[in-house]
Amino acid sequence: MLLRENIALGGLRQWDMKESERETCRCANQLVRAECQAYSVADSQSVRLNDAGSRHGSPYYCDRTCLIPSIYYHMLITLGTPHIFIPIDRSPAAENLHTAFSSILTRELDSYKPIAVIHSLSLATSLSWPTATSSMDEWVTLADISQKNVPFLWVGPNAAGHLKPPSQILSQGNNALWHYTIEMAKEAESRALDALGMYNLTLQAGSWDGSYYGQKVVLVQAMMVRPNTLKPASR
Questions:
Q1: What is the number of helices (H) and of strands (E) in the chain?
Q2: Tens-digit pLDDT profile for residues 171-203
Q3: Before 227, cis peptide (omega within 30)?
């Protein structure tokens, strides 16, 4: 949304949408309605090919690289191109995802140029500590094999919504989320990864289920994430 300078529909592939769908999915709805999320932008190359006429010559549309291994469609991309989502639902992830990740890293000839990775797990993993640490090791190992400058940013989960179903309160309520946030930040830092928590930001934010937040929250998250993607790898 920020890079395309399109707050109303910038997170969506509006070229694939009907006029009625574009009207329904404007602004915050592009982030919180399931029928709108089906049109979410998954890579910047599709924007370059299909939406060139609507960028108005944006000075923020760059040619940098940012990779996002993200379990169950969680993170937004905030810096440069090509931007790529790598959706995974377990650790270790499927081999074809490893191949896709490695191919992007090796495409960059300059070994000192940062290729930022934003790594996050959604609540689909039920706050599994072993899954989280295994996933960190998995993707960091692949990045190290490439011998490229790959800074990682681990992003902790959002707070739980106050209307979350009772069956999930014990396993994914705020007490469990807070302990997960603190411990996984320690695990990330022990691996020389930067860590950014979203718990405090979203604790009192408006969300019916604790998973989907409105446009204001997402834009603040994007501005928080962006400075971290500029740092060189410290491993």
A1: 10, 5
A2: 677 888 899 999 999 999 999 999 988 888 888
A3: no
